[in-house]
């Protein structure tokens, strides 16, 4: 999947929030769906996993890792929540506040998901070339910085579908 596969978006709605969601989905094929909530000022990462993953163990590791990460960074998390929604394929939902989340933290979350769930984590098969990964990481950094300062004035959800990224105004 490349940046050109993004569907056209009405320019009135294309802002830092939508750009952030698209860049995160392009950069991290492990993230299935991502939302940005205007009401709660949160970023919600959703991961699809096969049944019977060790959720409690993952929850404990992720909580401890993020607490330590933020302690080392000298930041405090306003909101951190991890939930498991059981369905045909389970959904692990990580909710974070926009004011303290960083690109490095998103990297940490994705790496912990990959290392702890392994093959049970369902991911998109598209691999980006190294230069595109670097570009998407720069975009994510820039957009997160803008959202930390200004918040988001709209709610959006971005999903993967047939090799494309679709963005919906919530």
Radius of gyration: 15 Å
Main beta sheet, described? 7 strands, antiparallel
Q: Mean pLDDT score, rounded?
A: 87
Strand content: 15-25%
Count of the domains: 1
Shape: globular
Number of strands: 7
Give the H and E element order: HEEHEEHEHEE
The helix fraction, in percent, is 25-40%
User: Any low-confidence stretches, pLDDT <50, length ≥5?
Assistant: 1-14
User: From the helix content, strand content and strand pairing, which structural class follows?
Assistant: alpha+beta
Q: How many individual helices?
A: 4
Rounded to the nearest angstrom, the distance between the terminal CA atoms is: 24 Å
Keywords for this structure?
24% strand; alpha+beta; 7-stranded antiparallel sheet; 4 helices; disordered N terminus; 170 residues; single chain; globular
């Amino acid at each position: 999947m490349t940046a050109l596969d993004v569907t056209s978006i009405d320019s009135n709605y294309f802002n830092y929030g939508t750009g952030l969601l698209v860049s995160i989905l392009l950069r991290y094929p492990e993230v299935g769906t991502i939302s940005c909530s205007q009401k709660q000022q949160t970023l919600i990462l959703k991961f699809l996993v096969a049944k019977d993953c060790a959720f409690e163990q993952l929850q404990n590791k992720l909580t401890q890792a993020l607490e330590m990460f933020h302690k080392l960074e000298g930041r405090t998390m306003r909101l951190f929540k991890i939930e498991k929604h059981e369905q045909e394929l389970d959904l692990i939902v990580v909710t974070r506040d926009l004011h303290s989340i960083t690109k490095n933290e998103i990297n940490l979350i994705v790496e912990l998901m990959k290392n702890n769930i392994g093959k049970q984590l369902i991911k998109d098969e598209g691999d980006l070339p190294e230069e595109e990964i670097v570009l998407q990481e720069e975009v994510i950094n820039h957009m997160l910085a803008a959202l930390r300062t200004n918040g988001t004035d709209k709610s959006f959800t971005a999903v993967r579908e047939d090799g494309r990224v679709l963005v919906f105004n919530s």
